[in-house]
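User:
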Amino acid sequence: MKCAFLVFMLLLLACSPYRNKEEEEAKNISSVQCPEDISSPDNTLEESIRTLELEYILWGCSCPNWISREDRIEKEKADQSLIESCIYIEPADTMLYIPESQTFHFDRQNLLVEESFYNEPDYPKGTPAQEEPMRKAKVFRYTKIEVIEKERNK
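Assistant: Predicted structure:
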């Protein structure tokens, strides 16, 4: 009886298909589709190089979150909405993000960025389509970034 059981188990194992876990994982990964980039590939940069001090605004929507310090002061003095002056930012290189070792405190810190705006309102490169529609806004592409402390008395 033991011998028949062993023969049955060997036949069962021999007839089952061989599955390579790595091959199956590769199939699963290759079937994942990347969301479509909604930014325009034809948008070009302005020729002028600028340095901006940017403040972060925390909105409750998928809106541009950055505004220049000067624009915020001007809009607040005129009692105007800030949203129309908010911009998106985009690094020229993936190595230009804020270092992970540094925490950005939007209530105490600003960004100092340098480079150019794109000519047309758009979305940052690589922005995927989202369930909540995003509005187009000016996009500033930076080649230099620095975290600075906010000036409290201005």
